[in-house]
Amino acid sequence: MKAATKSSLLKNVVAVCGAYLWAGMGYVVSLWLQLSLLPALLLTIFPAFLWVYGVSRFLTLQDDAGTANATTWQLPIACIILTAAACVMIKAHGEYDAWLHWNSLARYMSSPSFFAYLHQEHSLWHADYPPGLPAAIGFVWRLLGDFPEWVPRSVSFLFYLATVLLLCSAAAKVSAFPRLWLVVLMLFAFNFECLSQGLNQYADVPLSLMLLLVFMLLDSYKCAPQNFQLFLLGFFMGACMLFKNEGMMLAICVMLVYARVWLRRNRALWLLAGLFPPVVLLLLYKQYIPQSNDLLEGFGSNFWHGLVRPENYLILLRRSVRVIGGRFPLPLLFSIWCLWQLCRKPHFLKSRKLCSLILCFGGFSFIYLTTSYDIVWLTNTSFNRILMQLLPSFIYFLIEALRKAYPENVHANNHNS
Question: If we measure between CA atoms, which residue out of 9, 12, 58 comes closest to residue 229?
């Protein structure tokens, strides 16, 4: 029996993340129009306000009966642990990907006069990065009249916190394993690679959250189909593209695997309506910025040569083993334990989520094999971040598989109550 919950963590995260992105999109438009501060403020705040109102008014999520309040005390504990970890791990300027790329781009977006320089050739290395993440940071800096580093640090921490809380909330509903939420929390609170990327302003973590929201909304849609949820799905797929260039690969793979969900005409229209705003803004932004994407630059020039070289496949395999085992040991052990629990019920491993993630990983591997860059250098610099983009959704897939494979305690708890 399904019961609708008027308020949930997922609904709040959808509202806040969407408002962040709408504010950024509105602000980018104001920069193009070279508006003064007051009109820019209205154009930034008004779409975000409409988004929050629409989500609170029209979005209805479905949850298992008896589990709506399963995380009333677990989530505050998760917040305290992650906040303590942030005080220890967070760096003032973030890691290389943050201070050189995103914060530099945010500085260009802190003023219409600065933003005008972005259309010039070689104005900023990696100026081809989408504006979804730095736009709102640039807006806050414009309001403050300075560039305080606590703004991007706070944004980075909140995205990571939301990701972990969503996963802990999902794990708390697996009543057959009542401490599973704590295990999931430990994965992200004590695995160094996850903490380093999550707290030091890597864009891969916000991107992973957008992908996680897509899968969670898909599950909610399957329980109770709602056209507004299709709109949200389209929007957050577009958000993946607007947060980082790799998000294009993620969004396309998910759309292909779940094509049957929205092939009908009325469903496709709602999905396209949500996809339209971020994709149009991204296309216009790419036309405005002359720099091309460095990962795809020269794509195809090494196509056949890279595909037929066995050495490339061995390099990719060795790098996969080293990064997964060396940088993500706790998620690896958790995955092995989950697969061991599910080996007696392998049919629960058949999932479109897993197919989507495998297709995403295959797509990235294809780019590694065919790019004109040296594959050793490229995998050394980016493979860990590619895995971080997929990790939260993969953990969510395992959690949902366990919940469906071991439902006995759920019924027992409902009966006892």
Answer: 58
pTM of structure = 0.91
Please state the length of the chain: 417
Phi-psi region of 126 (alpha: psi -120 to 50; beta: other; left: phi over 0): left
- CA separation for the pair 402, 199 (Å, rounded): 29
In whole angstroms, give the CA distance from residue 329 to residue 335: 10
Residue 2 has pLDDT above 50, yes or no: no
Residue 236: CB partners within 8 Å, gap ≥ 6? Answer: 14, 17, 18, 210, 213, 214, 217, 274
* Whole-number Å distance between alpha carbons of 210 and 212: 5
Give me Rg for the CA atoms of the chain: 21
Distance CA 43, CA 58 (A): 23
> pLDDT tens digit string along 71-106?
567 788 888 888 888 887 777 666 766 666 788 889
Distance (Å, rounded) from C-alpha 165 to C-alpha 89? Answer: 19
Residues 6+ apart with CB under 8 A from 302: 370, 371, 372
How far is Cα 326 from Cα 70, in angstroms, rounded to an integer?
Answer: 34
Question: What's the chain's average pLDDT?
Answer: 85
Nearest alpha carbon to residue 210 among 346, 380, 410, 24: 24
d(CA 243, CA 298): 23
Say which residue the tokens 């790329």 belong to: 101
Residue at token pair 């595909």: 307
Q: Between the CA atoms of 85, 214, 338 and 68, what dihedral angle is there, to the nearest 10 degrees?
A: 80
**Token couple for 140:** 């806050």
Helix (H, G, I), strand (E, B) or coil at 389: helix
Q: What is the pLDDT of residues 135-176, one digit of tens each?
A: 999 999 999 999 998 898 899 899 999 999 999 999 998 989
- Angstrom CA distances, 238 to 61, 190, 198, stand at 21, 31, 22
Domain positions in the chain are 14-59+72-416
pLDDT in tens, 361-415: 999 998 888 877 788 888 888 899 999 999 999 999 999 999 999 885 544 444 4
Residues 6 or more apart whose CB falls under 8 angstroms from that of 356 comprise 215, 253, 254, 257, 258, 393
C-alpha to C-alpha distance for 223 and 208, rounded to whole angstroms: 23
CB 141 within 8 A of CB 106: yes
User: Could you give the maximum distance between any two Cα atoms of the chain, in Å?
Assistant: 68
Separation in Å, CA 221 to CA 109, 234, 359, 397, 412: 36, 13, 22, 16, 26
